[in-house]
Specification:
The complex is a heterodimer. Chain A is mainly alpha-helical. Chain A contains seven helices and no strands. The longest helix of chain A has 29 residues. Chain B is built from ten helices and twelve strands. In chain B, the strands form two sheets. Chain B has a six-stranded antiparallel beta barrel. In chain B, β1 and β2 form a beta hairpin. Classes of the chains: A mainly alpha, B alpha+beta.
Amino acid sequence: MRPTDFFRTLIAFIILVMLHYTLRPLLGWRAGPDFLVIATLLVAIRVRPGAAAVIGLCVGLVSDSVDVHVFGAGALAMSAIGFTASWLKAVFFADDVLLNALFFFLGKWAFDVIFVLAGHRGDAGQVAIQIFVWSPLSAAVTALFGLVTLLILRPVLRASPS
Amino acid sequence: MPPAARAYSRRDTVLFVSCLVAAFAAIQLPDRIRDPFAAALRQTLVAPLVALQSDAEQSRRSWLTRDMREAQRDSIALRAMSLDASLADNDRLRKLLGLGEALRWGFVPAEVLQGRGVGEEYTVVLSAGSRAGIRPFSPVVAPEGLVGMVKSVDPTMSIAIVWAHPDFRVSAMAVDGGAFGIVGAHLGGEPERYLLEMRGVPMRSTLKPGTLIVSSGLGGTFPRGIPVGTVIAEMKTSELWARTYLLRPAVAPADVSDVMVLLPARTTAGVQTVWKTGLHADSAVKSIVAAGDSLARLAAKRDSANAPRDTTQRRDSTAVTAPPVVPSPQREARPAKAPPPPRAPTTTTP
């Protein structure tokens, strides 16, 4: 990655992390957008899978530090979706709106599934409701916000001509 | 796959597996290691983010509770407004109680229904009538002084004219008895319309501004000693043999909402001890208010209990202290039908 692209991606990443800790609590929705997942996916498709996994691990640890009961679950989930996103991007990638939305949707849902299962939160019924009701809703909202973010940050994220 | 790409791929895999191992290790960490680690993260790297989150949540709470806070603020403002009205009401009722306490018998309390139509500026409807013992020409009084006179009576209500009515007249005198005259409405322009004038004062009698004018008791309609007003200044008139004075009325009719109607027996018995007209007008009203103030009476009673016994003082205090029982209007209305109690002869009829 060229230095210009690196700084642009870094700026977008910081903006998304800030949004996660400002806009998300401000909205206060039960199924709110996850800007950390968007940020991780956004960075993951621009770096190698190994680096994406490390970035995912760090972001996950940061998010887990405020919820010590599931410490490590977020890191595991974020690391997994980071690596997978980066690897999938290497396999097939298209700059398509719907594909990006699907990408965010699946990324968020996968994150929630891993997070809930690894964190052992609640009984089987609660886990099922979380995975099949709230997580898809949250994933859809995240996909929507991810698309809006992509549209807004398009000038920043556009790769500089080589 | 070229060797470099394969090496890259292997490195990625190793990194990913390492991350997974680290994450699993973090999940399995015992509390004594995990908590300090998480705390260190919270206090360093995540601290600004946590602060941001806290601010955002506070903003959301403020946003969500704004309607409730606004409603609370409005309720407090409303309560504050009604508090002023309650204080004014309390003050008015206390004065009225004080007047009732001072009169003791022979009166009927009544509510005043102010006329607001054309030609009704100087008449009021009272909520008591002949069934309560009210008769035409009964004096209508307030704690501050004379309000007017009953003009016509129905069984349950009566109509009274206030002193501002052009037909109203009351025989009056200076409080020291130095000058007599007839007080009526001052029929001047609008600003002065709500003043009184005292006509027919002999040339030899001069009244200083501020002199209290009370009813003289002549004529039999109004008993002696009801405050009518205070002298403002002498008026220039064409009359050469008598003086005319402009008076500030003791009662503003617009502010009157409750009054006492004196019954014929009470009018005959007199009310000279009620307003204590030897005092200044303000002091007279204050003494009436004090009689209605149960707290003040209690304090006075406590003081007198604590004070050393002095026969002279006791005699004085018994002469002026109102009895502790606050009269109920219904109870006080009864003596109108029956003759006045034996306490009445202490007052004199003019």
